Amino acid sequence: MIRAASLLLGIALFIIAGAVTAQAEQRAVTYAPGGIAISGYDAVAYFTAGRAVRGSAEYAIMWRGATWYFASPESLMVFEMDPEAYAPQFGGYCAYAVAEGQTGSAAPDAYFFYNDRLYFMHDLSMLRKMKSQLPEIVAEAEAHWPEALGQ
Prior knowledge:
Layout: H1 2-25, H2 43-48, E1 56-63, E2 66-70, H3 73-81, H4 83-86, H5 95-99, E3 111-114, E4 117-120, H6 124-130, H7 134-144
Antiparallel strand pairs: 1-2, 3-4
């Protein structure tokens, strides 16, 4: 009986380990090179300052598996109160890549707002080129999110 229980426990641990490994192989929900969301830029400042503002490790928080930096304690507090309102859509991945069913890197200065939400693109040239198509890109990306993470 003890031997059977040990065998079942071993099988269960093997299955759990496999599931954890499979999850680790999928892309992270938040695009965070080096574990830092938005490459260290302040998510709140896009809304309040209207531009990309570099954050500081002095004002940091862990959220959704990444470290988020802020330029001030006020920005940090605002984010803590409602992170969903300030965090970029699609985990900060490039909206165009997500629209294509993939995940791709995003540049902190290649951002746009659509329906009061923050989005990123791969770089400024892509953002300029796709500017007239942003609503369609967002709609396509919404159709592919979060499945794009499991590619």
